[in-house]
Amino acid sequence: MTRFFKKIIVLLMSITAMVSISNVNALSSINSYTYIEEQFQDGSYIEVAVEQSNVFARSSITGKKTASYKGSSGTTYWSVTVTGTFTYNGKTASCTESSVSTKNYSTSWKLSNAKSSKSGAIALASVTAKQYHQDGSILKTVNQTVKLTCSVSGKLF
Known about the structure:
Shape: elongated
Number of helices: 1
Strand content: over 45%
Largest sheet: 5 strands, antiparallel
Structural class: alpha+beta
Order of helices and strands: HEEEEEEEE
Mean pLDDT: 86
Distance between the termini: 57 Å
Strand order of the largest sheet: 1-2-3-4-5
Low-confidence stretches: 4-12, 16-28
């Protein structure tokens, strides 16, 4: 091989390596945080986690917000998640898609009425959670709404 072809091959390998590294960085560009939204008298609480992906995007972003019902020991009994896709341009923001998903980790809880909606720059999800006693009576009812909002600069909260 001539020197010229060797240089071209080295250059192509370098470009391939840089593209691979930037793809790995893009995959790890997820911004997330968690906080406690509500505490109940029995020590149980609602923990909320917000996850924002493609944080380096310029005009659209997807994220999700999950509200989890946890017992006083930290055991998760159920959760509801809203996933939203948004567009933004520095002056306005708009929700283009909204969906809901639920998870139930306990036989004593039943989830119903799960639904999602969107309005302006907000993605919403809601669920009704009921805890049942062994005799079939209702011990507790929690109506949970999760609201994911996009700012005009593409930050989710």
